[in-house]
Amino acid sequence: MRKRRGLFFIIQIVLATLFLSLSFSCQKKIEEKKSIEDLLIKQPKLKFDEKVPQRYKITSTLYNRDMEGNIVSTIQLSGKFTRYVEKGEVLCRWEDVKMVSSKETSSEFPEGKSLDYLEDFLYPLSGKILNEDFYKDFPEEEKTYVKTLIWDAPWIEVAYVSIDNAEYNKPFFSSDLENKKIDIQNFALLKIKNLKGSWSGVAKKNGEVCALIEFKALSNPIETKLEGLSVKGRTCSWGSFWVSLEDHEVEYAQVNEDVIMEMTLPNFPKQILNMQREVEFQKIR
Description:
There is one protein chain. With about 280 residues, this protein is an alpha+beta fold. About 20% of the residues lie in helices and about 45% in strands. The chain has helices spanning about 1-40, 140-150, 155-165; strands at about 55-65, 70-85, 90-100, 115, 120-125, 170, 180-185, 190, 195-205, 210-225, 230-245, 250-265, 270-285. It is globular, with a radius of gyration of 26 Å. The N and C termini lie far apart (about 70 Å).
């Protein structure tokens, strides 16, 4: 009888322990769900001090492909980019910028050539970066690629603006960018169509709980008409930003672009070009 009572007592303890464990687990899941739901609310205005420099390593990789998707050549630029506000003006500075071309993409890119003329290159962020005069002192053979790196940096501004108006799982876009024409001097006329963004989830990056902001702008017409050169095509862009819910700093970002163009030169048959670009923003602390 005592053995039965002892066995019954042990079973009661096991069942009680199991019940408490399940109750604790359920309660924890409820609290986690509540905690996540608390995060998925419209964010207040920017909290971070814009005077504090935000630093990133920006890496832009260009892939030239044929119509079967084979890589013809690649060019990669990387540099340390600093963004801060002084006297109400957004200032940008570059350092340690390197450039390398390679046909080998299955492994790490080799050490690139340092672009010393970009060391401590400082300028206010404005539409002037679209003007040819802005790059008048740059080497002609590198100018086009350096331009794209400098044009990539303002993508970070999209995240700063977006988080203010973001509501979880609701699409949004900046109205001033809807069907906007961007005239890039001596380069191209780009028409942005149907730029859409959404706060699609919560993720963790660099130890910070972040809003995952995703965007896409598909089928944007692009054309160039210069002396002896005519280009017409379309570009598609999409990407993601990891924006801290604690201080609204951008912890990480990636942007992708796919361009198909038809190029016409005098006395030459038309050529079809396909270029893809991958741009990565890694936060530097």
